Amino acid sequence: MAGILAWFWNERFWLPHNVTWADLKNTEEATFPQAEDLYLAFPLAFCIFMVRLLFERFVAKPCAIALHIQANGPQIAQPNAILEKVFTAITKHPDEKRLEGLSKQLDWDVRSIQRWFRQRRNQEKPSTLTRFCESMWRFSFYLYVFTYGVRFLKKTPWLWNTRHCWYNYPYQPLTADLHYYYILELSFYWSLMFSQFTDIKRKDFGIMFLHHLVSIFLITFSYVNNMARVGTLVLCLHDSADALLEAAKMANYAKFQKMCDLLFVMFAMVFITTRLGIFPLWVLNTTLFESWEIVGPYPSWWVFNLLLLLIQGLNCFWSYLIVKIACKAISKGKAGKWNPLHVSKDDRSDIESSSDEEDSEHSGKSSHTATTTNGTSGTNGYLLTGPCSADD
């Protein structure tokens, strides 16, 4: 074990040339990031999760009820042992051949069986009240952490001149504000990692799991080798759009459509501007070029930049989805009443249509979902992510 730890904490990987771990030990004059500090994130992540449960029950739920958001779920499918067995053990989307077989076995017409499976699928979907509470929690946290990040960074020299991220690196003292900001963000992402398995299941589960994993690794990595200054820029920049998306979803659930559309447009503009403009031209410029000039490359430097480039790849993917959704909504708006982003439902949640038209449309085919947009990350939530985001 000692040999494995010595290999993992190899100074020639983590630190620039001629720098050792002993040089970064805490002294009376200065405090530096220590790897053991990161253990604080686990109990804090649990506390955040418990705060979320209390917030959703005692703050978000009363707000939802005041906005007349119903807790009623979708229509319950009538009990049927045969169909229930097929649904749970075989398939939730029976094909034409299976539908015909069930029709003969039960003496039901195919359309009624299709309707039963659609109602049974929707039965597992959370209510609008549950969605609103989740979005309100994320909105509140994103707004708080972004506001804290802006207030903290505006007092720092590296916000105004990114070269300060590398001056005297890695001998840059760790302040209490920076430590709190980092541990809070890391704890929130750990809470998202665990709660993702109990939260509303969405189509982008895999991509959001990757996003949370990369974010946790990036925060941990940059803290250990004291790249925390540039890390704060990355965190604050990526938090800038998330609150807007969650606010748009809340407006959508409350049926404030005009407000929802306006907030979504604002989210799209902020997301694309920050992720495709400011991030590469400002942050990636300093991590790739200014740091090379001032500090020079070393092994963990390459890993850090590769992680940032992976994050940028996810940003491009989500931006593509946002633009695609906007174009689709605009084209629909030409045929009827103008609705800039057509966010009538949460695309990530895969809500299915219950119209008779869909029944006939699905006749002879496996049932599919009829969705429109509004999804996130995360982003921290993200679009169709979300959108992130989008929890992202």
From TrEMBL:
Enzyme Commission identifier(s): 2.3.1.24
Pathway field: Lipid metabolism; sphingolipid metabolism; Sphingolipid metabolism
One Gene Ontology molecular-function label: DNA binding
Pfam family, one: TRAM_LAG1_CLN8
Leading EC class: transferase
Ranges of Low complexity composition bias in the record: 366-386
Record-annotated membrane-spanning stretches: 38-55, 180-198, 205-224, 260-282, 302-323
Keyword Ion transport: no
Subcellular location: Endoplasmic reticulum membrane; Nucleus
This protein's name: sphingosine N-acyltransferase
